[in-house]
C-alpha cells in the first residue's frame, strides 16, 4: 500500500474500462432520454397522464440521465467501493434539505398570499363576453390553489 | 533533546532562506505550520476586537445611554461616546460575526487544523499546499471588507449575526442595511470560500496522507474532531454560501427570494415578492447549526488529547468517542429547525426537530462521561493546559444542559430570544471552545515556537478567567428565566425587567475585568515566544506523533520516516518503563 | 493550596445552585403567570431544571471528586490502565436516552396545545407588528374583521377579556417581529406575508408587557406594548368607548367614488 | 510538496482510497458543489411550487428548443471530454488536444446560446431590477399608473425636443393612442367602480396589448383544452409565431416604449431563473478556463490525471444542467 507519490496507481488500473463504444452507447441513450421528456408534450400523453405524473416522469428521466453520466462518464461504475463514501452522503443530505423545506415553504405559501391570488391575472368570470380571447382558467397556477 | 531541536531549527532556517526569502517563508508560505500560525495570529487579533465590541454591549446594558468612557467614541462613533440604539444592534451583530467567523472557526480549523493535522498524522504537508495558502489569503478580503464596513455610511451590519430578512434585505429597514449588510455578505462569502478550500484539503489529507501504521482508529481525537468538522463544513457551508448569494442578490439586484408579497418598509412598497423570509432561516440554520458543532468538535478533540496526556491514562472509550463525534455530526444536520420553533415554522416540523435535538444530547453525554472516565483513576497533573481542558468539560456540561431546555419546544416558546439563549451559547462557545483554545495554545505552544509558556502566570490567567466568566455568564441564565430578551439596547424600558439592572451591572463589571485579565495571557504569550525556556521535542511526555518531531518542526515536519505502532493514548502502559509510550516507539522485542 | 484546583471546580456546582436559589429573593424569577396554560410550561421548565440540575450536580461533583482524589501529587496508586468499559458505555447511553426520550414525548402535548390546536372561535383582534409599534384592529360590533366598523388602534394598548378563550390573528407589515407575552408564556414571530394565530386564556386582570422579541431594527428595544385583561363588562365597555373614539377620529375617505 | 529541493524525506503514506489525492480532492469538492446546487435548486422548487402564480415558459420567452439544444450540446461535450481523457491515457496527445478543443468549443456554444436566451428576456424587460422591477404581478391600478408614468416620461422627453423628426411625431401618436384608448378607460372604470370587474377587464386588456402572454393565447388557439386547468401544458401545439411562441405586443412593435409588463409570478420567475442558470453558467465559465489551461499543456499520459479531474468537474456541470433543463423549461 505504500507508494511514495501515491499518484501512480490511479490511472493504470482502469485502462480497459470505458471505451469509445460504451461512450457512444451512453451518448445515444442520453439523447433518447432527453427526447423522452418531450413525450409529455403530445396531446395523446397529456390527455391521459396527470401533470404530477408527467413531472415525476421527467424527473425520473433526469435521474436516469444523471446516473448514466455518473456511472459511465465519471467512471464510477468501475471504481471501488470508495465511490459510495464520497457520493452518497452529499446526495442524501441534499435530498434531505430539499425535503425538509417542502412542508414549510413549499406548502405553506398557499395560505400566504391569497389576496394576490385573487387579484392575479384571471378575468372575472361574469365578463366572458367582454374579452373573448381570455379564459377563466388558471394559466399560471399549477397547484390548483383555487381549492 | 533540546540540542537536537535547536539544530533542526537552525537548519530549517537556512533551508527557508534559500527557499525564497522572507515573503515566501512567512507571508505567502505554503508550509502548513506557517499558515496555521498566520491563522492563529489573525484570529487572536480579531478576538481582541470581538472582546472590545462585547465591552460596548456590556457597557450599554449596565449604563444605558451613558457615554462610554475611552472606548465609546471608537465603538459607537456617536457624540460623546454614547451608544445609539442602532449602534447597539451593530455592536451585537459584529461581536457575534467577528467571534464566530473570524475567531472561533479560523482558530479551530484554520490555526490548529492547519498546524496539527499533518503533524499528527505524519504527513509532510497538506495535500494541496497552494489551496491551503489561498484559504488563508481569502480571509483577508473578508477581514478588510468587514473592517471597512464599520466606516461606511450607515455603519456595519445591524441585522444580528443571523441576518434575518426582510430586515437585512430591505435597504430602508435599518441604517446598517444600507451598505454594511452588503459588505457583511461579501465578507461572509469570502470566509465561505476560504473554509471550503480548507475543509476539502483537510479531508483529502486525512484520508490519503496518514503515515504507515496510522490507521483511522489510531488517529488522535483532535484529528477526528478536525476531520468530522471538515465534513460538516464541506456539506453545510455551500448552503450558507448559496443563501448568502441570494440575500446579496435580493439587496443589489432586485430579486425577491426572501421578500414576502407586499412587504413594506418606511411605508414604501417593495417591488418584487413571492419570496419567503423563512426560507432564509432554513438555509441559514442548515449551515449554522452544524456550524455550532464545527465550533466545538475540534475543541472536544483537543480537550480529549490534553485530558489523556495529563491524566497519564488512556483516553476512556476511544471508539465510543469517535462514534459519538460522528453521531453529533450526523444528527447535527437534522436539528437545525430548533432555532425556528417560534419562527412560524410548521409546528409538525417543530416536533420532529425537537426529537432530533433531544437525541443529539446523547453523543454529547457519551463524550462527557468518557472524559470523566479518563480522569478516573489517573494521576492528574494540574498544568495550565490541563486546567483549561477540565474547565472545558465542566463548562460544556452547563452549556449543554441548558440546551435541553431550549430543545423542549414548549419551554423554548418562553426562553427563545432571551438571555437564556445567550447564556447557553456563551457557555458552549466562550466557556467551552474559547477556553479549550486557550488550553490548546498553552499545550501546543512549545511545538509552535519551541519555547514553553510560563506556567504560573498561565494558572493565574486560568483561575481569574474561569471565575470571572462564570460570574459573567451564569447569571444570564436567571436573566433568561425572567424572560429578559436579547438584542435590546435598553431593556429597562420594560417594567418587567427594570429590577434586573443591578445584576447586569455586576455582569458587566465582571466582563470588563475579565477582558482586562487577558492582558496576562497576551504578555505571557509574546514574552514566551522570545524568552520562554526552550522546550524539547516532547515537553509533556506525550505520545502523540507531533511530539516526536522537532520543536518547532522544520520544513517537511519530520526528520525521520514516521512509522506508527499504536494509538496515541497509551499512557501508563505496562509494556514500558515510562508512563508514556509514543506512537512511533517500536514495541519491545519479545 | 494542595487541593486548590479541585476546590475551585467545586465552586461551579455550588455557585450554580446558589444562583438559582438566591435569585428569587431578589425577585429574579419566572414572571408572574396569568394564563391558564402557562402552568404547563412552567412545570416543564421546573421539571427540566430539576432533572438537568441533578445531572449537573452529579457530574460536577464527580469531576470534583476525581480531581481531588487523583491528583498526581497525592495519589500514590498506579494509574488504572483502562481503555474503557463496554458495560459503562451502554449504561450511560441508555440512561440519558431514556430520559431524553421521556422529555421529548412528555412535552409533545404542551406543544400541540400551544401551537397546533387553535380554538374554533372568531379572532378577538388582529395584531400587526410594524417598525416600531404594535397595531391592533378589533372586529368591532359585527365580530368580523376587515369591515367598516373595525376599530384600529395604534397606541400599543391591547384590551382583551379575562377568563375567556382568546384568539389573535398576528402578522407583520414590514420585517420580522416577535409577539412576546412574558406573563402568558407566549411568543410567536410575526412574518410578513404570513398570517398566524395565537390563542390563550388569561386568568388575572391587569396590564402586562408586550415585548418585541425579534430583532427588527434600531427601534427594536422600544417596540413595547401593553395588554390589558378586563372583566367581560369592562371589556365590552372599553370596546364601545374605543368605537366611539374611532368615530370621532375618523377621517372620511376622499369621496371620489360618488 | 512543490519545493522538491527540501531536505525533508519523501514520506510513505497509507492512503485509504486507491485513488490520487487530486481525484479525492475533486470528488470531495464535487460533494460541496452538490450541496451548493441543492440549496439553489431546493429554493427554486419550494418557491416555484409554493408560488401562487407562475408564468408558463412561453410567457417569459423560454423556448424548450434552446434548452434541449443546450442539453444536447452539454451531452456532446461530456462525450468529447471522456474521449480526450481516453486519448490522453493512450498517450495520444494530439488527438486528446483535438477532443479538448472540441469540448471547449461546445462549452462556448452553450454559453452563446445562454447569452442569446438571456438577451431574449432582457429585451422584453424580464429581469430583476432595483429599485423597482419592470414586471408587475397583477393588472391593477398601480400597474396602470406605472404605464401612465412611463408614457408621460416618454412624451415629455419627446415634446421637449425642438425639431422633431417624423419618427418622433409618430412616437407621440403611439403614446397618445395607448393612453387614450387603453389607460384612460381602465383607470376611469377602476375609479368609478373599484369593485366591478369591468375595470379589471380593461386593465387586463391593457396589459395584454402591451405584453400578450403566450399562455393566454395558446389556450385560445387550442380551445379544446382551455377548459382543463392544466391546459397551459399545451406547449408545443401553440399558435405562436416565431420560435419563442410570443405574440407581438406594443413593446415588440415599438421597442423604444419599454412599458411595464404584467406577468403573474414573473418576478419570482426571473429571480430563480437567473439565479439557477447564472450560477450554472458561472460554472461553465470556470470549466472553460480550465480547458484553456489544459489546452496549453501537453495532453499525454502524465496529464491524464488532471484531465480526469477537470472531466469530473465538467460532467458535474452537465449533471446540474440535466436537472435544470426539465425544471426550468418543461415543468
Ligand atoms: C458550540 C456551540 C454550541 C453547542 C455545542 C450547542 C449545543 C446544543 N444546543 Fe445550542 N446554540 C448555540 C451554540 C451551541 N449549541 C448558539 C450559538 C445558539 C444561538 C444562536 C442564535 O440564536 O444566535 C444556540 C441555540 C440553541 C437553540 C435555539 C434556542 C432558541 O433560539 O430558541 C437550541 C434549541 O434547541 C439549542 C440546543 C442545543 C442542544 C440540545 C445542544 C446539545 O448538543 C448539547 C448536548 C450536551 C449536553 C446535554 C451536556 C452533556 C450531557 C450530559 C451531562 C448527559 C446527561 C444529560 C441529560 C440526560 C440531559 N441551542
Ligand atoms: C465565539 C463566540 C463568542 C464569544 C467568545 C463571545 C464573548 C463574549 N460575549 Fe458574546 N455573543 C456571541 C458569541 C460570542 N461571544 C454571539 C453569537 C452572540 C449573539 C449575537 C446576536 O444576537 O446576533 C453574542 C451576544 C452577546 C451578548 C448579547 C447581546 C444582546 O443580545 O443584546 C452579550 C451580552 O452580554 C455578549 C457578551 C459577551 C462577552 C462579555 C464576551 C466575553 O467573553 C469576551 C471576552 C473577550 C476576550 C476574553 C478577548 C480577549 C482578547 C484576547 C485574549 C486576545 C489576545 C490577543 C493577542 C494574543 C494578540 N455577547
Ligand atoms: Cu419589533 Cu423587535
Ligand atoms: Cu442549533
Please explain how this structure is put together.
The complex is a heterotetramer of chains A (about 150), B (about 600), C (about 260) and D (about 325). Chain A is mostly helical and about 150 residues long. Helix content of chain A is about 55%, strand content about 0%. In chain A, helix 1 packs antiparallel against helix 3. Chain B is mainly α. Chain B has a single domain, classed as Cytochrome C Oxidase, Chain A. Chain B starts with a helix and ends in a 59-residue tail after the last helix. Chain D is built from 10 helices and 2 strands, in the order αααβαααααβαα. Dinuclear copper ion binds next to loops of chain C.
Task: Give the gist of this structure.
The complex is a heterotetramer of chains A (147), B (590), C (258) and D (331). Chain A is an all-alpha fold and 147 residues long.
Pair of chains with the largest interface and how many residues each contributes: B-C, 117 and 96 residues
Bound molecules: heme-A, dinuclear copper ion, copper (II) ion
Strand content of chain C: 15-25%
Helix content of chain C: 25-40%
Number of helices of chain C: 4
Number of strands of chain C: 10
The order of strands across the largest sheet of chain C is: 3-2-1-5-8
**Molecular shape of chain C:** elongated
Strand count, sense and barrel status of the largest sheet of chain C are:
5 strands, mixed
What's the alpha carbon Rg of chain D, rounded to whole Å? 26 Å
What's the overall average pLDDT of chain C, rounded?
A: 87
Form type of chain D: elongated
Strand order of the largest sheet of chain D: 1-2
State the low-pLDDT regions of chain C, or none: 252-258
Q: List the total number of helices of chain D.
A: 10
User: What number is the mean pLDDT of chain D?
Assistant: 80
Number of β-strand runs of chain D: 2
State the end-to-end CA separation of chain D: 50 Å
At the fourth level of CATH, the homologous superfamily of the largest domain in chain C is Cupredoxins -  blue copper proteins
What is the highest CATH level, the class of the largest domain in chain C?
Answer: Mainly Beta
Secondary structure layout plus pairing:
The complex is a heterotetramer of chains A (147), B (590), C (258) and D (331).
Chain A: H1 20-37, H2 43-48, H3 51-73, H4 82-106, H5 109-112, H6 114-119
Helix pairs in contact in A: 1-3
Chain B: H1 2-27, H2 32-62, H3 72-76, H4 85-121, H5 129-137, H6 139-149, H7 180-208, H8 221-252, E1 264-265, E2 268-269, H9 277-294, H10 297-311, H11 318-332, H12 347-375, H13 384-407, H14 409-415, H15 419-449, H16 455-481, H17 501-531
Antiparallel strand pairs in B: 1-2
Helix pairs in contact in B: 2-4, 2-5, 2-17, 4-7, 4-8, 4-15, 5-7, 6-7, 7-8, 8-9, 8-10, 8-11, 10-13, 10-15, 11-12, 12-13, 13-15, 13-16, 15-16, 16-17
Chain D: H1 21-50, H2 64-89, H3 93-122, E1 135-136, H4 141-160, H5 166-192, H6 197-210, H7 214-221, H8 250-253, E2 261-262, H9 266-295, H10 304-330
Parallel strand pairs in D: 1-2
Helix pairs in contact in D: 1-9, 1-10, 2-3, 2-10, 3-9, 4-5, 5-6, 9-10
The structure holds heme-A (2 copies), dinuclear copper ion and copper (II) ion.
Amino acid at each position: 500500500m505504500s507508494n511514495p507519490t501515491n499518484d501512480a496507481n490511479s490511472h493504470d488500473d482502469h485502462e480497459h474500462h470505458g471505451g469509445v463504444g460504451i461512450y457512444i452507447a451512453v451518448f445515444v441513450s442520453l439523447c433518447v432520454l432527453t427526447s423522452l421528456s418531450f413525450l409529455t408534450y403530445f396531446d395523446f400523453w397529456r390527455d391521459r397522464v396527470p401533470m404530477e405524473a408527467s413531472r415525476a416522469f421527467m424527473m425520473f428521466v433526469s435521474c436516469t440521465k444523471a446516473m448514466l453520466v455518473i456511472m459511465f462518464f465519471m467512471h464510477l461504475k468501475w471504481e471501488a467501493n470508495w465511490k459510495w463514501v464520497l457520493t452518497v452522503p452529499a446526495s442524501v443530505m441534499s435530498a434531505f434539505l430539499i425535503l425538509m423545506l417542502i412542508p414549510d415553504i413549499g406548502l405553506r405559501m398557499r395560505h400566504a398570499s391569497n389576496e394576490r391570488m385573487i387579484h392575479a391575472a384571471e378575468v372575472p368570470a361574469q365578463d366572458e363576453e367582454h374579452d373573448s380571447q381570455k379564459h377563466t382558467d388558471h394559466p399560471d397556477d399549477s397547484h390548483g390553489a383555487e381549492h | 533533546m533540546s540540542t537536537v531541536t535547536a539544530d533542526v531549527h537552525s537548519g530549517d532556517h537556512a533551508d527557508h532562506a534559500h527557499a525564497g526569502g522572507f515573503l515566501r517563508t512567512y507571508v505567502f508560505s505554503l508550509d502548513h505550520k506557517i499558515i496555521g500560525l498566520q491563522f492563529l495570529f489573525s484570529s487572536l487579533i480579531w478576538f481582541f476586537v470581538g472582546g472590545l465590541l462585547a465591552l460596548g454591549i456590556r457597557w450599554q446594558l449596565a449604563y444605558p445611554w451613558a457615554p462610554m468612557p475611552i472606548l465609546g467614541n471608537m465603538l459607537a462613533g456617536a457624540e460623546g461616546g454614547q451608544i445609539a440604539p442602532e449602534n447597539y444592534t451593530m455592536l451585537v451583530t459584529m461581536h457575534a460575526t467577528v467571534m464566530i467567523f473570524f475567531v472561533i472557526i479560523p482558530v479551530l480549523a484554520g490555526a490548529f487544523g492547519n498546524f496539527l493535522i499533518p503533524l499528527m498524522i505524519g504527513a509532510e504537508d497538506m495535500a494541496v499546499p497552494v489551496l491551503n495558502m489561498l484559504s488563508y489569503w481569502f480571509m483577508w478580503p473578508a477581514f478588510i471588507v468587514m473592517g471597512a464596513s464599520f466606516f461606511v455610511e450607515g455603519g456595519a451590519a445591524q441585522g444580528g449575526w443571523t441576518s434575518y430578512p426582510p430586515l437585512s434585505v430591505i435597504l430602508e429597514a435599518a441604517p446598517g442595511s444600507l451598505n454594511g449588510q452588503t459588505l457583511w455578505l461579501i465578507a461572509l462569502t469570502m470566509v465561505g470560500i476560504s473554509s471550503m478550500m480548507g475543509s476539502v484539503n483537510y479531508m483529502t489529507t486525512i484520508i490519503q496522507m496518514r503515515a504507515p501504521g496510522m490507521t483511522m482508529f489510531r488517529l488522535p481525537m483532535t484529528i477526528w474532531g478536525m476531520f468530522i468538522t471538515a465534513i460538516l463544513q464541506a456539506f453545510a457551508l455551500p448552503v450558507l454560501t448559496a443563501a448568502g448569494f441570494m440575500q446579496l442578490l435580493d439587496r443589489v439586484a432586485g430579486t425577491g427570494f426572501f421578500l414576502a408579497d407586499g412587504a413594506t418598509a418606511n411605508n414604501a412598497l417593495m417591488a418584487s415578492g413571492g419570496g419567503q423570509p423563512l426560507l432564509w432561516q432554513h438555509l441559514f440554520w442548515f449551515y449554522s447549526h452544524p456550524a455550532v458543532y464545527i465550533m466545538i468538535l475540534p475543541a472536544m478533540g483537543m480537550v480529549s488529547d490534553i485530558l489523556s496526556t495529563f491524566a497519564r491514562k488512556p483516553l476512556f472509550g476511544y471508539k465510543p468517542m469517535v462514534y459519538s463525534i460522528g453521531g453529533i455530526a450526523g444528527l447535527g444536520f437534522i436539528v437545525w429547525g430548533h432555532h425556528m420553533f417560534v419562527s412560524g415554522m410548521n409546528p409538525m416540523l417543530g416536533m420532529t426537530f425537537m426529537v432530533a435535538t433531544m437525541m443529539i444530547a446523547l453523543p454529547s453525554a457519551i463524550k462527557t462521561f468518557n472524559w470523566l472516565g479518563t480522569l478516573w483513576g489517573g494521576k492528574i497533573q494540574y498544568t495550565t493546559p490541563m486546567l483549561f481542558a477540565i474547565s472545558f468539560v465542566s463548562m460544556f456540561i452547563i452549556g449543554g444542559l441548558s440546551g435541553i431546555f431550549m430543545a423542549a419546544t414548549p419551554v423554548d416558546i418562553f426562553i427563545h430570544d432571551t438571555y437564556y439563549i445567550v447564556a447557553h451559547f456563551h457557555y458552549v462557545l466562550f466557556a467551552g471552545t474559547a477556553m479549550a483554545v486557550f488550553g490548546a495554545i498553552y499545550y501546543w505552544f512549545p511545538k509552535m515556537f519551541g519555547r514553553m509558556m510560563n506556567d504560573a502566570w498561565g494558572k493565574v490567567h486560568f483561575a481569574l478567567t474561569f471565575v470571572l466568566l462564570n460570574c459573567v455568564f451564569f447569571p444570564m441564565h436567571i436573566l433568561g428565566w425572567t424572560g429578559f430578551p436579547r438584542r435590546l439596547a435598553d431593556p429597562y424600558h420594560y417594567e418587567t425587567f427594570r429590577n434586573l439592572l443591578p445584576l447586569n451591572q455586576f455582569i458587566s463589571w465582571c466582563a470588563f475585568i475579565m477582558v482586562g485579565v487577558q492582558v496576562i495571557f497576551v504578555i505571557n504569550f509574546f514574552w514566551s515566544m522570545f524568552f520562554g525556556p526552550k522546550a524539547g521535542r516532547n515537553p509533556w511526555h506525550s505520545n502523540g506523533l507531533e511530539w516526536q518531531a522537532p520543536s518547532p518542526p522544520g520544513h517537511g515536519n519530520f526528520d525521520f520516516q514516521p512509522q506508527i505502532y499504536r494509538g496515541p493514548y497509551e499512557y501508563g502502559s505496562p509494556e514500558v518503563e515510562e508512563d508514556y509510550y509514543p506512537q512511533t516507539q517500536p514495541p519491545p522485542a519479545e | 493550596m494542595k487541593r486548590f484546583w479541585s476546590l475551585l471546580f467545586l465552586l461551579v456546582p455550588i455557585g450554580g445552585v446558589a444562583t438559582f436559589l438566591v435569585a428569587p429573593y431578589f425577585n429574579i424569577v419566572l414572571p408572574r403567570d396569568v394564563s391558564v396554560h402557562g402552568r404547563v410550561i412552567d412545570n416543564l421548565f421546573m421539571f427540566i431544571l430539576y432533572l438537568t440540575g441533578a445531572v449537573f450536580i452529579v457530574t460536577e461533583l464527580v469531576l470534583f471528586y476525581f480531581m481531588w482524589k487523583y491528583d498526581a501529587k497525592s495519589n500514590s496508586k498506579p494509574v488504572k490502565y483502562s481503555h474503557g468499559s463496554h458495560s459503562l458505555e451502554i449504561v450511560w447511553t441508555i440512561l440519558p436516552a431514556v430520559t431524553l426520550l421521556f422529555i421529548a414525548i412528555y412535552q409533545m402535548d404542551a406543544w400541540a396545545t400551544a401551537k397546533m390546536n387553535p380554538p374554533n372561535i372568531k379572532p378577538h383582534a388582529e395584531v400587526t407588528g410594524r417598525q416600531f409599534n404594535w397595531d391592533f384592529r378589533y372586529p368591532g360590533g359585527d365580530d368580523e374583521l376587515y369591515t367598516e366598523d373595525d376599530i384600529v388602534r395604534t397606541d400599543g394598548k391591547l384590551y382583551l377579556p379575562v377568563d375567556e378563550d382568546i384568539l389573535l390573528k398576528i402578522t407583520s407589515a414590514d420585517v420580522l417581529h416577535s409577539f412576546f407575552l412574558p406573563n402568558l408564556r407566549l411568543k410567536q414571530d410575526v412574518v410578513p406575508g404570513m398570517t398566524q394565530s395565537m390563542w390563550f386564556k388569561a386568568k388575572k386582570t391587569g396590564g402586562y408587557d408586550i415585548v418585541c422579541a425579534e430583532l427588527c431594527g434600531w427601534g427594536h428595544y422600544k417596540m413595547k406594548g401593553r395588554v390589558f385583561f378586563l372583566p367581560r363588562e369592562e371589556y365590552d365597555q372599553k370596546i364601545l368607548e374605543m368605537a366611539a373614539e374611532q368615530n370621532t377620529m375618523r377621517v372620511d375617505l376622499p369621496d371620489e367614488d360618488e | 510538496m512543490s519545493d522538491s529541493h527540501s531536505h525533508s524525506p519523501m514520506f510513505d503514506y497509507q492512503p485509504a482510497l486507491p485513488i490520487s489525492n487530486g481525484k479525492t480532492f475533486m470528488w470531495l469538492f464535487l460533494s460541496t458543489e452538490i450541496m451548493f446546487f441543492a440549496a439553489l435548486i431546493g429554493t427554486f422548487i419550494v418557491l416555484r411550487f409554493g408560488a401562487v402564480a407562475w408564468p408558463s415558459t412561453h410567457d417569459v420567452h423560454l423556448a424548450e428548443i434552446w434548452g434541449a439544444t443546450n442539453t444536447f450540446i452539454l451531452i456532446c461535450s461530456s462525450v468529447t471530454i471522456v474521449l480526450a481523457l481516453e486519448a490522453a491515457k493512450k498517450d495520444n496527445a494530439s488527438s486528446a488536444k483535438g477532443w479538448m478543443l472540441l469540448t471547449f468549443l461546445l462549452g462556448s456554444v452553450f454559453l452563446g446560446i445562454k447569452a442569446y436566451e438571456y438577451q431574449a428576456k432582457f429585451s422584453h424587460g424580464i429581469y430583476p431590477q432595483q429599485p423597482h422591477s419592470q414586471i408587475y404581478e397583477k393588472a391593477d391600478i398601480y400597474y396602470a399608473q406605472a404605464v401612465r408614468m412611463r408614457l408621460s416620461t416618454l412624451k415629455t422627453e419627446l415634446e421637449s425636443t425642438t425639431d422633431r423628426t417624423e419618427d418622433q411625431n409618430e412616437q407621440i401618436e403611439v403614446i397618445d393612442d395607448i393612453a387614450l384608448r387603453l389607460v384612460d378607460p381602465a383607470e376611469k372604470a377602476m375609479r368609478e367602480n373599484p369593485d366591478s370587474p369591468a375595470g379589471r377587464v380593461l386593465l387586463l386588456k391593457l396589459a395584454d396589448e402591451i405584453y400578450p402572454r403566450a399562455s393566454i393565447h395558446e389556450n385560445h388557439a387550442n380551445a379544446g383544452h382551455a377548459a382543463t386547468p392544466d391546459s397551459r401544458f399545451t406547449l408545443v401545439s401553440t399558435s405562436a409565431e416565431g420560435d419563442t411562441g410570443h405574440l407581438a405586443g406594443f413593446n415588440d412593435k415599438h421597442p423604444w416604449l419599454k412599458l411595464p409588463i404584467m406577468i403573474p409570478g414573473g418576478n419570482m420567475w426571473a429571480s430563480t431563473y437567473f439565479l439557477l442558470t447564472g450560477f450554472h453558467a458561472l460554472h461553465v465559465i470556470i470549466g472553460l478556463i480550465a480547458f484553456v489551461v489544459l489546452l496549453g499543456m501537453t495532453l499525454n499520459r502524465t496529464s491524464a490525471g488532471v484531465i480526469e479531474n477537470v472531466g469530473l468537474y465538467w460532467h458535474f456541470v452537465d449533471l446540474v444542467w440535466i436537472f435544470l433543463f426539465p425544471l426550468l423549461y418543461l415543468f
